[in-house]
Known about the structure:
The chain is elongated. It has a domain at 3-38. Strands 2-3-5 form a three-stranded antiparallel sheet, with no helix packed on it. A two-stranded antiparallel ribbon has the order 1-4. It is built from no helices and five strands. The protein is an all-beta fold.
Amino acid sequence: MRIATVDSSCSVLDENLMPTSILSTAALVVDPPYLNPVPGDSRHCGSVRLDE
């Protein structure tokens, strides 16, 4: 069984405490014996504006 985990972080909020930008996202996939990540794709996209 493959295990995948994803996490994102958002720290820029508007006056209503709603997120306006996603600052980072990370994902990891592992195969048995769950010791090393599977080689894959990584890229930097910068922050993403949600209110535009």
